[in-house]
């Protein structure tokens, strides 16, 4: 496989710098994980805006990269063995970039598995559950009369927030040192504000989570990554 010739996504989103890592994304809580990680590591990359409209994420060109029609996705023209590597799923992208750059993924085995553990906690718990909370509390699902789905996701979000609050006792970052686990988790804590759901999950009663998110948002690379690619 050669890049860009063997990658149909480039027909619609052509690279200006084919030697650089290509990011296909939109600044949502999942999308910014990849852009923040790229900003933190300093790896040269080129960002392409893929909106969440069907015309983009369900286009044949994007599906050729991610058959699951979701951002973010990347192509590294200089992947393992010098071959191009295409990758989707933000957790896999974070692990890959951590390993490629030797940054933000500890090399000590115990610390490494702690970081991966919290990354998985976000991928399998916080992300899907908070996402459903957003749907049932703010978006189309908020019009559904049956209160049970809404209550279910509010209660689960509260429970998950308590888990994070407890885990942050005596530490600045979720797995000890700043890592890919924080880049996965903190954007989802931030999303509670976007969903207008802070009060309903008792955000202010979680002072360690509040301080943790402030600490994350204070990082210059995070501020840059939150707006890549620009929405407009
Ligand atoms: N598990 C995936 C989830 C990605 C995801 O849900 N992306 C959303 C935006 S935050 C998306 O692309 N939605 C478009 C769609 O579902 O049509 C990951 O972590 O990469």
TrEMBL record:
It holds the Pfam family GST_C_2. Residues 18-105 form the GST N-terminal domain. It comes from the Bacteria. InterPro entries: Glutathione-S-Trfase_C-like, Glutathione-S-Trfase_C_sf, Glutathione_S-Trfase, Glutathione_S-Trfase_N, Thioredoxin-like_sf. SUPFAM superfamilies: GST C-terminal domain-like, Thioredoxin-like. Residues 108-232 form the GST C-terminal domain. PANTHER family: DISULFIDE-BOND OXIDOREDUCTASE YFCG, GLUTATHIONE S-TRANSFERASE-RELATED. This is GST-like protein. It comes from Lutimaribacter saemankumensis.
